[in-house]
Write a structure and sequence with these properties.
Number of helices: 8
Strand order of the largest sheet: 2-6-4-5
Oligomer: single chain
Length: 210
DNA sequence: TCATTAACACGGG
DNA sequence: CCCGTGTTAATGA
């Protein structure tokens, strides 16, 4: 575990903290599609992402969803931080975007490290800041971009976090993430295909240029 | 004008 | 047959 920690978080945490993390935490493998956090749930431990990606969504009472952002290696979940520290319920839903490896840190240790390590404190603040910026960007996207621009952004994000130019999603799944209807996604994707920017297949989209 | 909803046809697995 | 896709018509914001 220590090597993975080092390569992803070594520049952030000092040696003693890295050793404490590897001693007190457990590695967890999650599979694509696994629901990691449900809205309204309390959280018992905090994840550090070693590899893979986690999709963070906002969900309303009817179960309608909206994609907020992705977490990648080197990231942690800011919602989890506030949940653990303040004992609040989760406001978001987290789903594994792909098979991923996480390191789970017990809440108790987090409090201890906050007192003990300044690098831990900066990491927590930095995480909050990063996620707040992502959340603001998500708001900007909804407020100021048309659906075709949002779709382009979505495809770009997808190929980035998956490091794969083929997006393995159905039109319906994309529609859920962007909180719109499949008709719209199908139409916009078709237009992109006609323009030669993507290639459409059943269950997947090959990105040519965006 | 553009999104949504419902409906339908097509076709691949 | 089931599901994903492409398209259209009606309705509304």
């Amino acid at each position: 575990m220590i090597e993975e920690l080092n390569s992803n978080y070594g520049h952030f945490f000092e040696k003693e903290l890295l050793e404490e993390i590897s001693k007190d935490s457990i590695t967890k493998e999650v599979l694509e599609g696994d629901i990691l956090i449900k809205p309204g749930s309390y959280i018992k431990s905090m994840p550090l992402i070693i590899n893979g990606a986690i999709k963070i969504l906002r969900e309303d009472q009817e179960g309608d969803e909206l994609l907020l952002y992705f977490l990648e290696k080197g990231d942690t979940c800011a919602m989890t931080l506030s949940c653990c520290m303040g004992h609040h319920k989760s406001e978001i839903k987290a789903i594994a975007e792909m098979d991923s490896t996480l390191i789970m840190i017990p809440i108790k240790k987090m409090e201890e490290w906050t007192a003990k390590y300044s690098s831990w404190r900066s990491f927590v603040f930095e995480s909050y800041h990063k996620r707040l910026m992502e959340a603001i960007e998500a708001i900007d996207n909804i407020a100021f971009l048309n659906m075709d621009e949002r779709l382009l952004k979505y495809l770009k994000d997808k190929i980035k976090v998956n490091s794969d130019t083929i997006v393995h999603n159905t039109h319906q799944e994309i529609a859920y993430d962007l909180h719109t209807s499949r008709v719209v996604i199908s139409r916009l994707l078709k237009k992109l295909e006609v323009d030669g920017r993507i290639e459409l297949n059943r269950n997947s989209i090959k990105v040519i240029s965006l």
